[in-house]
Fold each of these.
Amino acid sequence: GHEGPALEAVAASLPTPALAHEADITDDASLERAAAVVRERLGPPYAVVANAGVAEAGPFATSDPADWRRVVDVNLTGSAATARTFLPDLFGTKGYYLQVASLASLAAAPMMSAYCASKAGAESFAHSLRAEVAHRGVDVGIGYLNWIDTAMIRDADRFPVMRELRAHLPWPARRTLTPEQAADRLATAVEQRSAAVYLPRWLRLAQAA
C-alpha cells in the first residue's frame, strides 16, 4: 500500500526538511509534478531511489494479461520513467541513482513470471544506464533484496502455492526481513554510492553462482 499518513508522519518527524508526496510512476505527468515539488521544496536531488514495486502470483497460462502488464509497467517501465524524470537533476548534482531489484533478478521463481521478468529487466536497465551516465559523474547502484515484510509480500502469501513455495525454501532463503533492515541497508548504499547492495548479504553468492 501507499501508506500515505505513515509516510507523512515519518517526514514530519525528521530533523531535516522532508516531504512525502504520492506519485504514479506509470504516469509521466504525475512523475513530473512530483519532481517539481521536490525541486521547489528541497532543491535538486543528489540521490534518487527507484523502489516502487508490485507483484502478482499464479500460473502464467491463466494470468490476467492486464495484471501481468501492470507489474511490468510499474517495476520496469516505471523505474525507467523515474530515472528519465530525475536524470537532469542528477547530471547537475553529479548524484546517485539506486535501482531496487530483487532476488528475482538473479533467480526466477515459478508462479511469479511477471515479477521475475520485470525485476530482471530493471537490473539490466540499471547496468545499461550505469555505462551511459558514468562520464557525467552519476553513479548507478542496484539493490538486491529478498523477502521484506511489506504489504506486497503479505499479499502474495494469500496464494496457497506461494505459501508452499516459501515454506519449502532453505531457511536463509525463506527468512523475512524487516522494512527497517532494508531501509538501513539502502541508506548506507546511498551514502557510499555503492554499485551493488545485498540484503541479506548472502545474495552476493547467488549472483556469483
Amino acid sequence: MQKMVQQTTIQKELQIYNTLFEKNHATEYGGCNYNDKNAELYLINLYSENNTAKIAADTYSYNATLIINKTQMKNNKADDLADNIVNKKSDKCLLINTETIQDNYNNHIQIYSDKALHIQNNTFNLTLNGKVNVKTKLLSPLKDTTISSRIKIPFKLGSTTYYVTKKSDNTFYMNHKYTTRGSKTVTITYPSSTYKINLKVNIK
C-alpha cells in the first residue's frame, strides 16, 4: 500500500487504489481528497488515519461523483460539519464496504450529505464516554438532509428500542441516563439500510 502525504485535487476523473493517507492536514476542506471540478472520484481499498481539516478530514466532494469502496477511516478529525466525508450538491455519493472508526467519538458527525446517501455494507464503530446518573447524548454519525422528518430511526440500547425523529438541525439523537457503570452498546439502524452503526458507550 502506497502512502500519500498530501491532499489530492481532482481535475476530471481520478481513481485512487491501495493508498494510505496518514496525518495530513488541510486548513480548509478535505484533509486527503478535495473534489469540486464536476469530476468523478473513485477511492478503492484505502486507509486513512489521524488526518485533520477544518471540514472533512478525509474527503470533500462538491457537485461531483464520489464512489468509495473497501476503505477504512480511523480517528480522522475536523473542526466543523463532518469528521470524514462531506458531500454537497452531488447526486451520486456511494459508499460500499467501508468502515468508520472513532476511538473518541465525542458526538461529532462523521458523514454529511445534502443529497441522498447510498450506503451499502458499511460499519461504524464509535466509542463515546459518559458518566453514570448523568444524561449522555447519543448521536447518529450521519447527517443526511434529504431524510424525511416523518421517519423514525430506531436506537437499540441493550434490549430496549427507542424511536427517534429528526431534529431541526437534520440530526438524529437522544439523551439517556445510565444508572450503572461499564461498557454499553447502542445500535442505530436506518430504513432499508445494509450497514451497522455500533456505538460503544463507556460509562464511568
Amino acid sequence: MYGGLIEKARDILAGSSDVVVLTGAGISTDSGVPDFRGPEGVWTRNPDAEKLSDIHYYIADADIRRRAWQERL
C-alpha cells in the first residue's frame, strides 16, 4: 500500500543523529500532559494565563506586559 515508503522512512531515521517529531495536542494529552483549552486545560483553569501568552493583550494592556515580564524573571 505504501510502496516502500515505510522502509525508506525507517532507513532515513536510522541514518539520522537527530530527529524531531511535530505533533498535535492529542498525542500529548493521551500521555497525560495537560492541554491549554480542554476542560482541565491550563487556560481553562486560569484564563489570565492565556492573556499573558496572547500578543493582542500584550500590546493593548500595560498591566499584562508587566505581569508577563514578571512571570519570565
Amino acid sequence: AIKRFKYNRRQDMLPVMHSWLRQSHVLELVQGADLAAPVPLHPSRLKQRGFNQALLLAQAFPEVPLERELLIRRRHTLPQAGLTPRERQDNVKGAFAVSQPAMVKGKNILLIDDVFTTGATVRECARVLRRTGARQVNVLTVARVRYE
C-alpha cells in the first residue's frame, strides 16, 4: 500500500494511512506537539513525484500546526532504497536545514515521514532540529521496515 501510494501516485490510499496514524497510541504522541514538520523532498524529486508523501501524511493531524517548509533539503541526495545503513547515513549527512530557526526554539516537534528503515533520514532531520533549539523531536512514520 505504501509503495503504491509513494511511487504510483495512489493518493486514494491516503485515508487508510491517515486512519493508521490516528490510532489512540499515536494520538498520545501527537498531543504534546507544538508543530508538525514533514521530511522534505528535494525540489527535483518533488517535481518528479508530484507530491511530498510525508506532507500528505502530516495532514492527518489538523490539531497540530503544520509547518510545510520548516525543514528544507540543502542538496539532492540519492534514493535511500538499496543503500547500506552506512551509505544511508552518509547520503543524508548535512542534507537538511531549518528554514525558520526562531520557530523551533523550545518547541516539541512532530517529525513525519513515510517509512522508517534504518532511521538515517529522520535522525539527521532530528539532529538539525535539536541543534537549532527544539526541546524535543518525536518521529512518526506510517511504517517500519527492517533493513535487509
